[in-house]
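Posted in: Protein Modeling Q&A

I'm a second-year student putting together a small comparison for a lab meeting, and my supervisor asked me to include a predicted structure for histidine kinase. I've never done this before, so apologies if this is the wrong subforum. The sequence is pasted below exactly as I got it from our records. If anyone can share the structure token output, I'd also love a short note on what stands out.
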Amino acid sequence: MLTSIRPDRDAVALAVSGLLGGVLLWLLGLHTQGGHPFSAPWATLVPLTAMAAAELLRRNAPRAALTIGVLALVADQFTRGSLATVLMFTDVMYAAVLYGTPAAARRLPVATLLITVASTIGFLAWFRKPEALLIGLVIGLVSFVPALTGVSVRTHRTSAEAARLAAAQTARLAEMDRTQAVAAERARMARELHDMVANHLSAVAIHSTAALSIDDPDTSRNALKVIRENSVEGLSEMRRLIGLLREGGEDQAPAAAPTLAALDSLIEQTNVNGASGGLVCTLEDTREEAAGALPTPVELAAYRIVQESLTNALKHAAPGPVVVRIGRTGALLTVEVTSVFGSRPGPTAPGSGAGLVGMRERVTLLGGMFDAGAESGDGGDGDGDGGTKIWRVRAQLPVAEGTVRE
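Accepted answer (user: helix_wrangler)
Welcome! Here is the predicted structure, written out as tokens:
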């Protein structure tokens, strides 16, 4: 409690300098008035000391400081008076507005203005001389002007603090936007990297394992052929990814994004890579040519979903058909990939689950619906008999422009 009202350095400096200045004026015999009830020389020091004490409280207890200051100023009028007491009172009034409550900051200027006007009218009526206006002017300079100055400084400080807080808030929002943009870009590049390379590396892993585990020259030769083809394709995809990273640069033109027109090549490549595992991949595209072109984000997402689904089939699917279905109904593009669900013989490639996460993220960004899982093969679509389970990946993508979420 004591530390909360401890005066700061400025208050101590003002109090000490005011007190010393008043004592010096007293020693020199300089007073502001004379012929008052308490005309003893020492009486002037009492309100001077009280006003100096009020200065000590100017910041931490402005209301108490103003109360003491008003009493000291009134008491000073019954002595010979000291200019130092009056000057310190102006600072106490200024501090009461600047450091006081908002209510005090609103009321004190109005109150001092009313006191100034009322005093001027009163002294004019009493003395009936124009010189009475000087008394009203002095009262205004001692009370109203310091209060008005305090309001001005307080308003400026409040505006500066509001501007500082607004700038800090803007900086925080900008940092949040930057962080979200970086995270979104990293997620996008992670999806692109996974979808570009996973298909080829899965084929390389499966056929290299087969070449190492089966001691047969023809098998090894075929495996090496597939490994070379996928290595070349993977290198080409990596170059395209580098092109995406350098997009907009001076020395690198943006690389073209894959489209659904390239699905035939993707199906053919999957048949080559999955031949040793008994996979037979087919494409059923029921879209009509009159349906019109697809937005680039939708077409890229559809291609990547098919690519990742075929990669998962190559790594995990049991021998049997892998069917890719592409259809368009109104404003929805439907992508569906089915494969036989179960264990498979021969070498396999490990999976991390990142592919399903990436597909779901792509569909969510486009405002579509995504579903993947195992189900019975007798669902009425001819995927298998009642004892066979299939793995189905299904995505519905809106084809209207402006559906991509930032």
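A couple of things worth pointing out for your meeting: Residues 3-170 form one domain. Strands lie at 279-285, 320-329, 332-340, 369-376, 389-398.
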